[in-house]
Amino acid sequence: MPMPHHTVHPLISIAEIEAAIDRLAAEVRRDLTVRPLTVLGVLNGSLMFVADLMRKLNQPHQLGLIQVSSYRGPVTQPGSLRINSEFLPAIAGRDVLLLDDILDTGRTLAALVNLLHQQSPASVRTAVMLWKRCRTEVDIHPDYVGFEIPDQFVVGYGLDYDGDYRHLPYIGVVNFDGASTTGT
Ligand code: IMP
Ligand code: MG
Fold this sequence. Notes:
Layout: E1 6-12, H1 14-31, E2 37-43, H2 47-57, E3 62-70, E4 81-84, E5 95-103, H3 107-117, E6 123-131, E7 144-148, E8 154-155, E9 171-176
Parallel strand pairs: 2-3, 2-5, 5-6, 6-7
Antiparallel strand pairs: 1-9, 3-4, 8-9
Bound molecules: inosinic acid and magnesium ion.
């Protein structure tokens, strides 16, 4: 089915993302220093976030990736999750920093945190570039947050709309016809 007509408007700039990465990296460096660290990225959306944050951490860490897909429509109706943890490294006794692009209902991160705790890590913390706090349905509070955003559909910096726009180096809001959120 073709995508409905829509436009993308800048919301968070490249410079603002860079500043957020610097701040988050400093917070992580402050908190996670004692035990061996595993940075665990949730694919596909966290790809850019993981790559940017890793380069600013300045401390040894292991990288792991976990793939999650949900049965959703193009604009993310919450659905049931499929988790592929085939590439999850051993995390027993380690501090785990789980990175995702966005926390929306919170179901994805909550399910992953539960799954990780079954592997006996020393600790599990979560970092998200974006948090739609007003939509969060489960009892989860991310430890590190780039930006809180209102209930808008966003793309870029790893986030997609029906498979597209992940490549944008900034974050934009998708406006659908007749549903402009900027009033323009
Ligand atoms: P949650 O389980 O509802 O928190 O869903 C999180 C996942 O939904 C994210 O990892 C994204 O893949 C997707 N998602 C939620 N909101 C948006 C959005 O505004 N743009 C693009 N993807 C989104
Ligand atoms: Mg995602």
